[in-house]
Design brief:
Elements (H helix, E strand, L loop, with lengths): L1 E7 L6 E7 L9 E4 L3 E7 L3 H12 L4 H10 L7 E7 L4 E5 L8 E5 L2 E5 L6 H12 L5 H14 L9 E7 L7 E5 L5 H20 L15 H17 L14
Antiparallel strand pairs: 1-2, 1-8, 2-9, 3-4, 4-5, 5-6, 7-8, 9-10
Helix pairs in contact: 1-2, 3-4, 4-5, 5-6
């Protein structure tokens, strides 16, 4: 009872999933990602093992279509499932079980796929894909949000709205961004608000975190404090409200 977009940014190799539905906490079970490995969305009458086991098989080097074929062949309930995935090279595949509730279907393009079930109609998938492809000059997270907002405007989940999530991984095994609205009257609007809040401090801090290549991370917070102060000054000059950054950045 969901629609989602699974994508790889061709410029960076970053992987992302955005999803929305008229169901509680969609971000808990649908998105599965591992940096430099792949991204999987498992939905409809959800089977979480499609995500967990699918990522393991991507690590083993299996192709997305072969993984889908194997997972669904072992599952007697596969007719009620839907999943789509992409690997680190941009190869992708999708599956919509024949018993998924109408409207249900998917579309697969290079570096991106969109899939959904119990939707207002095929226009939800088409508009989600169209806007994502047309926003190629936008930041990756913004492209995903814009695409989902277009799908919502085209009718979205035919039962209504309740939850949404946006997850992006860069090169690491931890997410660069993982935000969710679990129970909200307008979850995509709330998700966009959370994304704006994340840009105030969180995403700046995310740039300082240790990585396998740099296990120490950025230990001098001067640079990040300066970036935040500059952002706040710009917002004040524009007359927009935001939280105060008068105090130094604290560790998280």
């Amino acid at each position: 009872m969901t629609w989602s977009i699974v994508a790889r940014d061709p410029e960076t190799g970053h992987l992302g999933i955005a999803v929305a539905t008229r169901f509680f906490a969609v971000g808990a079970l649908v998105p599965h990602i591992r940096g430099k490995i792949g991204a999987i969305a498992t939905q409809a009458f959800v089977n979480p093992t499609y995500g967990t086991d699918g990522l393991i098989q991507l690590v083993e080097g299996k192709m997305p279509q072969d993984i889908i074929d194997g997972l669904t062949s072992l599952d007697e309930g596969s007719a009620q499932r839907q999943l789509h995935m992409i690997d680190a090279e941009g190869r992708n595949a999708a599956f919509t079980g024949e018993s998924c509730i109408d409207w249900a279907g998917h579309r697969v393009e290079h570096n991106v796929s969109v899939a959904g079930n119990m939707l207002a109609g095929p226009q939800v998938i088409e508009q989600t894909m169209r806007v994502y492809q047309e926003a190629a000059d936008m930041p990756f997270a913004e492209r995903l949000l814009l695409a989902m907002e277009a799908g919502e405007a085209a009718g979205g989940d035919k039962r209504g709205k309740q939850s949404a999530a946006l997850v992006i991984y860069r090169e690491q095994d931890y997410p660069w961004l993982d935000i969710r609205t679990d129970d909200h009257a307008d979850p995509l609007t709330e998700l966009r608000r959370l994304y704006a809040v994340a840009q105030e401090r969180y995403l700046h801090v995310a740039e300082t975190l240790p990585t396998r290549e740099n296990p120490h991370g950025l230990r001098d917070r001067t640079e990040i404090d300066q970036k935040i102060a500059t952002l706040e000054a710009t917002r004040l000059a524009r007359g927009t409200a935001s939280v105060s950054f008068a105090t130094p950045l604290k560790p998280v």
